[in-house]
Specification:
With 446 residues, this protein is mainly beta. The protein is built from four helices and 37 strands. The chain folds into three domains: 130 residues, Chondroitinase Ac, Chain A, domain 3; 150 residues, Chondroitinase Ac, Chain A, domain 3 (Sandwich); 118 residues, no CATH class. The N and C termini lie far apart (77 Å).
């Protein structure tokens, strides 16, 4: 068999002499013999009878211009190939056989440029068998550790997040968990227990509510010398209590509240969830301030008499509960309850991944209800970026659909309310959940 051999230097010389950047012009090129090209990384052999519109030889690769009906074959006796280029009407076969890399580019009705270079990995030898060459997969980068502390102070990081807790002298604990990317740089997070007597005058509690336990908790964050008051993602706050601390209170009404400096009042975190088994209350927030558990005092009418017969556990549904209804049209659907005054709303959890973004959502807390008739279904959600978890001036309300898509309600607040919208029906969600949904067309009318 006759073979031609081309050196890189000769190719460059031809380019300089004729002002060309390829071995041929636009006319079709046919190789009558096997032709070997010396590259800096390996020797490529273009097989006899290969055709192409043109071939550009570079130091470590060749660029093949495929014309309609061309077939181009190149081999590498030591390594496999990397090939880049794409056209629906051009097929590329990249294989190894007996230690030899083989690329065949076949154009039926398509055209295009294909860059062929030597892979870093040897083709497997032995047996003479063929097989598709697969470049090595890079090793995944290790997942950063999450900084954790139980001393009341931790340095959270952007790529690892952080978790810190502090236990007060009465035995109750406050904890906050920061997900990854909640902060943009190293941030020192502290939780400081403060006796409720210390802040009673400056942070009064409204009539009918009581502070659970003897402490409130001051949450702070500092990055360098700059105080951090808001975060890129929602944080999960958990406060604990004892049975003795909720004597005289309705346990189901316990909620985590934050101190709002603007209104000078305690404001409930609406997604607060109480677990009466573990004596914890959990909620999410995107800002730091003072946090505390508040509960509603049990009235005389609500004080239960000593039962004379065994009773079953209460199935009362409260704000923040997750419920399911076996007799509904979708018996497998799970909903989050939101209570505003006497009105109860439910929002369909359209993805189980939502549970990963809220620490209080747990399957063991799922309640079964007999009917959904007393609830109003809402699909409206918003990420609040204003102070203390309030809506910001540019925050958008989206309609969340069952196909896990979100649609901006593109209208003024006045139009929204005038056409059947309801501000209380809008659920506050965190950015992590909102990012789960694909973006669909805007909603222009209700």
């Amino acid at each position: 068999m006759i073979k031609n051999k081309i050196k890189i230097g000769l190719v460059f010389a031809l380019v300089m002499m004729f002002g060309m950047t390829s071995l041929v012009g636009a006319s079709n090129l046919t190789y009558s013999n096997d032709t070997t090209i010396d590259l800096t990384t390996a020797d490529f052999t273009i097989s006899a009878n290969s055709t192409a519109g043109g071939v550009v030889v570079n130091a470590d690769n060749i660029v093949v211009t495929m014309g309609v009906g061309d077939t181009f074959t190149v081999t590498n006796s030591t390594k496999g190939f990397d090939v880049s280029g794409s056209n629906a009407n051009v097929t590329v076969s990249n294989t190894c056989s007996g230690g030899v890399g083989i690329v065949v580019v076949n154009s039926s009705t398509g055209t295009g440029d294909y860059t062929i270079s030597s892979a870093a990995t040897q083709c497997p030898t032995g047996g003479g068998g063929g097989g598709t060459y697969t470049p090595p997969t890079p090793e995944p980068e290790p997942t950063p550790d999450t900084p954790t502390s139980t001393t009341g102070e931790v340095e959270a990081t952007a790529d690892g997040g952080g978790s810190v807790s502090n236990t007060s002298e009465d035995g109750t604990t406050a904890e906050v968990v920061l997900p990854t990317e909640a902060v943009t740089s190293a941030t020192t997070v502290t939780i400081i227990p403060v006796t409720k007597a210390t802040v009673a005058e400056t942070h009064p509690v409204s009539t009918g509510s009581s502070v659970v336990g003897g402490y409130v908790y001051n949450f702070n964050a500092v990055s360098g010398t700059t105080a951090v008051s808001t975060f890129e993602k929602a944080l999960t706050v958990t406060l604990t209590y004892t049975d003795a601390q909720v004597a005289g209170l309705t346990e189901g009404t316990l909620k985590i509240h934050y101190w709002d400096d603007t209104s000078s009042e305690w404001v409930a975190l609406t997604d607060s969830a109480v677990n009466t088994t573990t004596n914890t209350v959990t909620a999410t927030t995107t800002h730091f301030t003072y946090f505390v558990i508040l509960g509603t005092q049990t009235s005389e009418d609500e004080t239960p008499e000593t039962p004379t017969t065994p009773t079953t556990p209460s199935t009362e549904v409260i704000d923040g509960d997750i419920i399911q209804c076996a007799s509904s049209s979708n018996p497998f659907a799970v909903y989050i309850v939101k209570t505003v005054g006497d009105t109860k709303y439910i929002r369909h959890i359209v993805s189980l991944e939502i549970f990963d973004y809220y620490g209080h959502l747990k399957w063991e807390n799922l309640k079964q209800v007999d009917s959904l008739s007393e609830y109003s279904l809402s699909g409206w959600a918003r990420v609040n970026t204003g102070p203390n978890g309030t809506p910001g001036p540019t925050d958008k309300v989206y309609e969340i659909n069952g196909d896990q898509s979100k649609h901006w309600i593109n209208m003024t607040a006045e139009d929204f309310l005038a056409h059947g919208g309801s501000a209380p029906a809008i659920y506050t969600v965190n950015q992590g959940e909102m990012d789960l949904y694909t973006t669909g067309p805007d909603v222009m009318s209700l």
